[in-house]
Write a structure and sequence with these properties.
The chain is of the alpha/beta class. It has five helices and five strands. The chain has helices spanning 3-23, 47-50, 57-69, 87-96, 137-169, and strands spanning 30-35, 38-44, 77-83, 100-105, 130-132. Strands 2-1-3-4-5 form a five-stranded mixed β-sheet. Helix 3 (57-69) runs parallel beside helix 4. The longest helix is centred in the C-terminal third of the chain and has 33 residues, at 137-169.
């Protein structure tokens, strides 16, 4: 298998994990950590469910990976994630010393691996990560776009239902008792 085929294989697995996040009402991002072409850890976004702003898919995987390898340094590993990591996650990738990052969709609003900003190539870092973006990008982007489209439709429907409920009441107010 070529490296491109290996990357697509693992990204498809990450997309399956992203579906778990979506099913839980989370932003559909999935990630997994691989060493010597063996799965070490896997996870998906859990920020809403856990009330934890740091519970991104990448962080979940890095924590599991550290436990699985009994080391906070995840040398010679590859992290696959369906969305370009944010600033927090990019910093965690440097600190964990992963060797390679492969991501799917680019994030032009908060992506910290080349799209919005590039934390991983800042001069003076004590570790540099090899980055490959855009693997199965269309599929990863479509999953995210469809999720946010669905979310907007749900919010619109909620607003309409609320407006309808208020309209049925006719703006009535509770009568005051004497």
């Amino acid at each position: 298998m070529t490296q491109a085929e290996v990357d697509e294989f693992w990204m498809k697995r990450a997309l399956e994990l992203a579906k778990n996040a979506q099913d839980a009402g989370e932003i559909p991002v999935g990630a997994l950590l691989v060493k010597d072409n063996q799965l070490i850890a896997s996870g998906w976004n859990r920020s809403i469910e856990s009330h934890d702003p740091t519970a991104h898919a990448e962080i979940m995987v890095l924590q599991q990976g550290g436990s699985a390898l009994s080391n906070y340094r995840l040398l010679d590993t590859t992290l696959y994630v369906t969305l370009e990591p944010c600033i927090m996650c990019a910093g965690a990738l440097v600190h964990s010393r992963i060797g390679r990052l492969v991501y799917g969709a680019r994030d032009f609003k908060t992506g910290a691996c080349g799209s919005f900003i590039n934390i991983l190539e800042r001069p003076g870092l004590n570790h540099y990560v090899d980055v490959k973006g855009g693997v199965l990008e269309e599929t990863c982007s479509a999953m995210l776009s469809n999720f946010f489209k669905m979310r907007r439709a749900q919010k619109k429907a909620q607003k309409q239902m609320l407006a309808q409920t208020e309209g049925e009441c006719g703006g009535c107010q509770q009568q005051k008792s004497p």
